[in-house]
Structures are given as structure tokens and as C-alpha cells.
Design brief:
The chain has one domain: MetI-like fold (Orthogonal Bundle), CATH 1.10.3720.10. It is mainly alpha-helical.
């Protein structure tokens, strides 16, 4: 938090974006290393012999093979960041507060809790991960059917 105050980005969305990016990027890299190591070296060498450059080999051969693992890492990161409360509570006060911070603020109001707003925020918090996971399951089902 002290770094963000010194840089002048405390209580901004930029501080949250950079913090979440640094937090989840390490997880995605950690998951992607074994995925790219599973790419057969013979396939990469065959593409190189056929005249493809390293970028084409990566985009057309290695990335499609590792895409399922990377997609899982992206889903994990999305759900982690969407439901995250502690970093957002620490790095924001009022201007850049996220929905979990606002919902937590409502539930700590004591006797005057606006339950309608709390329930609406709970539904709003639950919808994007559910829609995202539904779309992902449709995508994975279609990918597995074409195998």
C-alpha cells in the first residue's frame, strides 16, 4: 500500500489492475510451464524443417496444444480476482471500491442493513463467474466432441 501511495495511484483502478495482474500472472506462468513442456519436440522440429519460423511454430502448434491448460489458468484467475476482497479492501477507500468491498460495507452497517441491496449485490457477484463457467463448459464440450 505504501508503494501505491508514493506513486500516487492509491485508491485507483490502476493499483488494483496491477496488483491483480502481478498476483495472477505468476499462477498462469506456473501452470503454463508444464503445458508447454508437453509439446512434442518432434512436432516443433518438423514445423521448423517445413520452413515455419519460431512465431508461427508458437502460434499454430505450441499454443493450441497448451490452450486447455492456459484456459483453465485464465478461468481460475478470473474467479479469484472477481471474488477477491482483502486486496481491494486494502488498496481502495471510496473511489475505486469493488463490488465485494461495497457488499462487505453494507453487511457491517449493524441494524440498518439494506438487505435488498445486499441481496442484489450478491446476485451481481455470482452472475459473471457462472456465465463465464457456462460458456467455458460449452466451449470445452464442443472441443471434446470434435476430437
Amino acid at each position: 500500500m505504501a508503494i501505491w501511495i508514493d506513486l500516487g495511484v492509491y485508491d485507483t483502478r490502476l493499483s488494483l489492475i496491477v496488483t491483480y495482474l502481478l498476483t495472477t500472472l505468476s499462477t498462469i506462468i506456473w501452470l503454463s510451464i508444464p503445458a508447454f513442456q508437453r509439446v512434442p519436440r518432434e512436432v516443433e522440429e518438423a514445423a521448423t524443417i517445413d520452413g515455419y519460423g519460431p512465431y508461427v511454430v508458437f502460434w499454430r502448434i505450441a499454443l493450441p496444444i497448451a490452450s486447455k491448460t492456459l484456459l483453465g489458468g485464465v478461468v481460475f484467475s478470473f474467479v479469484l480476482v472477481w471474488n477477491e476482497l482483502m486486496m481491494a479492501l486494502t488498496l481502495t477507500s471510496q473511489q475505486a471500491a469493488t463490488l465485494p468491498v461495497i457488499a462487505a460495507t453494507f453487511t457491517s452497517m449493524g441494524q440498518e442493513v439494506p438487505w435488498g441491496v445486499v441481496n442484489a449485490s450478491t446476485v451481481l457477484l455470482a452472475l459473471p463467474p457462472l456465465v463465464f463457467l457456462g460458456l467455458l463448459s460449452q466451449l470445452l464440450n464442443s472441443m471434446l466432441k470434435h476430437r
